[in-house]
Amino acid sequence: MDLIGLQTLLDEVAGARVLVIGDIMLDCFIDGAVSRVSAEAPVPVLAHRSEAVMLGAAGNVARNLAALGGVATLIGLIGDDDEGREVHALISEGVRAELIIDPGRRTTTKTRFVSSGQQLLRLDREDVAPAEGAVEARLTDAVKAAAGEARAILLSDYGKGAVTAGVAAAALAAAKARGIPLIVDSKARHFALYGEADVIKPNAAELAFATGLPTATDIEVEVALAEALAHSPCGAILVTRSAKGMSLAVRGQPVRHFRRPAPEVFDTAGAGDTALAALGLALAAGAKLADATRLALLASSVAVEKAGVAVVSPAELLEAELAAHRQPSEAKIVTHEGLLKAVRRWRGRGLRIGFTNGCFDILHPGHVAYLAQARSWCDRLVVAVNSDASVCRAKGPGRPINDLEGRALVLAGLACVDLITAFEEDTPAALIAALRPDVLVKGGDYEPETVVGADQVRSWGGEVKIADFVVGHSTTATLARTARG
Q1: Residues with active-site annotation
Q2: In degrees, to the nearest 5, what angle opens at C-alpha 133 toward C-alphas 127 and 135?
Q3: What pLDDT, in 10s, does the model give residues 36-88?
Q4: What pLDDT does residue 85 have?
Q5: How far apart are CA 112 and CA 143, in angstroms?
Q6: For the residues of 250-278, what is the DSSP string, one character each?
Q7: Alpha-carbon distance 70 to 321, whole Å?
Q8: Cα four-point dihedral sign 281, 252, 301, 331
């Protein structure tokens, strides 16, 4: 799908109504710092910093539908407890909820303890018995009542009790009566539960669980998909395969494999929900299954680059698709907004951020050595480049020799440089204040007390480093030699 096709599809999905049925849970994230091991047992001690709570599972599908411009109706089970009331409080704009309270059930809650972007432990509190009796009847009645406005129905079955055989049958009957697609995200052992659903969307591990077959390679996935289709009356199965993309098996057609450049994975929690939301919303808008698959793959690729159970927006999808069409070096050149987003993502993973700046008018071995040394002091190196006007003010008429685009592209070709941005001011003080780098680096012709931003960086506990000076290399000296003929 090209950029025009993506923009067209995103315009078409706006306002599409989608019914989401399934397991609702609270996803809690407790973030902290680990600096020591407990004296009581060989376990890390997590010093609490912050907490975040958001809707997960079917609730996250609904959140993503709303973020992408759709209108979601959410049906599911909660308990008569504080967690269930918090689920109600988290229902956002663009989502209409019909939450069935089961007094004998705890609201499913997953609490993740995280440090430096890594999960240390996950604590689950849940009851997974299938809904029955009056509770199941209320679920099926809600499905029948809400299906009338929907253009697609999504089942999010996490195996927590909401998607019973009766609920699945009610969803299928409603979809057939309306002539709209039924898409299922299933963790069940057998896909036959969902009858003639239009699409079932397991991940590779879930497909292996359902078929008892390996799913590591394309060929293995194709064999497993054929086995799954042979034991289910569904129309198609779409398997999500993390960095390997997605593979689609439509009954009677060859398997198709969909790929994207592997994203920088930060957190996979909720990525399957994002994929289901994008897939269902595209099909609700009348998109072909292949195009809906491409949108789902793009959306999940953006989601895994974010912390926690995240939603994605149309603007982020367009930005990601645009970046995928750039040369790798060009993708390193970003706006201040793009830089701040990347730095937040890196910092969430506990990475050490380095910063340096300069004109870099004619790149020479001295520059390369100093940038390589700067990168050795951090996990990610940001380089801020003076704009053409800024260089002229600093160096005088006739400078720069190379314009901003040329200077940035040459820097982007260096493996030690992670991101590049430009600044118009005479100094990068404002940019340093916004980024709050952990390490501020300048070349060996500076003294620490003369480095712009040094006091700022030290104030938040950062370091100021002076790179080794490489004798005999400078842009000014090069130009002087050229002038002498």
Answers
A1: 273
A2: 60
A3: 999 999 999 999 989 999 999 999 999 999 999 999 999 999 999 999 999 99
A4: 95
A5: 32
A6: ETTS--EEE--PPP--S--TTHHHHHHHH
A7: 20
A8: negative
Contact call for residues 398 and 480 (beta carbons, < 8 A): no
Q: How many angstroms separate the CA atoms of 199 and 155, rounded? A: 10
3-class secondary structure, 216: coil
For CA atoms 397, 398, 399, 400, the dihedral sign is positive
pLDDT of residue 30: 94
Residue 403 main-chain phi, psi, to 5 deg = -75, 170
Tokens 């089961």 -> residue: 102
Residue 149 to residue 152: CA distance in whole angstroms: 9
pLDDT confidence of residue 474: 61
Name residues whose C-beta falls within 8 Å of residue 435's C-beta, 6 or more positions apart in sequence. 339, 340, 343, 353, 355, 382
pLDDT of 306 above 90: no
Q: Which two tokens stand for residue 238?
A: 């779409």
The two three-digit tokens of residue 477, written as one number: 């000296």
Q: Which helix (H) or strand (E) holds 177?
A: helix 165-178
Residue 202 contacts residue 239 (beta carbons within 8 Å) = yes
User: Are β-strands 118-125 and 108-115 bridged in parallel, bridged antiparallel, or unpaired?
Assistant: antiparallel
pLDDT at 485: 55
- Residue 453 corresponds to which amino acid? G
